Amino acid sequence: MELTADVYGVEFSPVGRIHYYADNGEDIKRGDLVLVIGEFGLEVAKVVIGKREMSIEELGYDLKAIVRKLTEEDLQIHKKNEEDARKAKEVFKKLVREMNLPMKPILAKYTFDRSKLVFFFSSEERVDFRELVRELAKNFKTRIELKQLGVRDEMKLMGGLGLCGRPACCTVFLREFQSVTLKHARKQQMMINPAKISGTCRRLLCCLTYEHDFYEEALKDVPDEGSSVEYEGKRCKVINVNVFLDEVTLMCEGRKMIKVELKYFKYAAQKS
Questions:
Q1: Which of 34, 39, 40, 12 is nearest to 22 (CA)?
Q2: CB within 8 Å of 64: residues ≥ 6 apart
Q3: What share of the chain is helix, strand, coil (3-state, %, to 5)?
Q4: Helix (H) or strand (E) holding 94
Q5: Residue 18 CB partners (closer than 8 Å, separation 6+)
Q6: Domains of the chain: which residue ranges?
Q7: Beta bridge partners of 52
Q8: CATH for the stretch 75-149
Q9: What is the pLDDT along the chain (272 residues), one digit of tens a residue?
Q10: What is the DSSP annotation of 63-92?
């Protein structure tokens, strides 16, 4: 018999990864703030998925229960923690500047019980921040943790516009990042120009994955540009593949150009 549990999906930051926690018996609705045991300790999270039944196997990790829905008193504590964290970030920035450290401060966050103060930063190189941690601990009299973020996570937290002129996908709806490689751009016959296919985060555009499956299916068994094929007994070179016009342009003997429908190659692959 499959083990199941009633769970809620929560996020720790806007459009962040969804984590599931077990129902604790309270009347909890989507949009409520709750206390849970997170990566850094006792943290505040927002409910984004209402109660649903899921199998333990589907969850894939040990399930913890929601501690409680935030009370009015909890909300005041949470608000104070956020205000103090913003001030802590300014101190963090000042110390980084004074110590001339190659890091970019992004965010500061207190756990709910203030047992830990976490500073998020980005850097393109290895940073020795031991002295920085000592100064931060001296300033804030609590346990300090520094967490380095990748450029995509930095973009998600800081926000920004994509090449399309709209807010970046990761700040609107994209909760988890997929692996994006140049093969996604090549399959969509895009010019391999880093400036044209990279986002503000300087990584390949996440949207390159959105239509990838369509191109994979549409171009299945169709030869790649630059490859050699046999057509009606002649050796030809593939000059262009146009999925929208549904044709492949071949250059055959005598530099003669021929246009062939995609289905020709698909049919030939089925026969072989």
A1: 34
A2: 21, 22, 36, 37
A3: 30, 30, 35
A4: helix 72-98
A5: 9, 10, 11, 48, 49, 175
A6: 4-70, 75-149, 154-215, 219-271
A7: 7
A8: 3.30.300
A9: 578 889 999 999 999 999 999 999 999 999 999 999 999 999 999 999 999 998 888 887 788 999 999 999 999 999 999 999 999 999 999 999 999 999 999 999 999 999 999 999 999 888 899 999 999 999 999 999 999 999 999 999 888 888 888 999 999 999 999 899 998 998 888 888 888 899 888 899 999 999 999 888 888 888 888 899 888 888 899 998 988 888 999 999 878 898 999 888 887 777 66
A10: --B--EE--HHHHHHHHHHHHHHHHHHHHH
Residue 13's nearest CA partner among 215, 239, 224, 170 is 170
- pTM of the predicted model as reported, rounded to 2 decimal places: 0.81
- Rounded Cα–Cα distance for residues 140 and 118 (Å): 11
- Residue 256's contacts (CB-CB under 8 Å, 6 or more residues apart) are none
What is the architecture, at CATH level 2, of domain 219-271? Roll (2.30)
Calpha distance 250→265 (Å, rounded): 12
Tokens of 2: 């499959």
Smallest Cα–Cα separation from 35: which of 62, 75, 5? 75
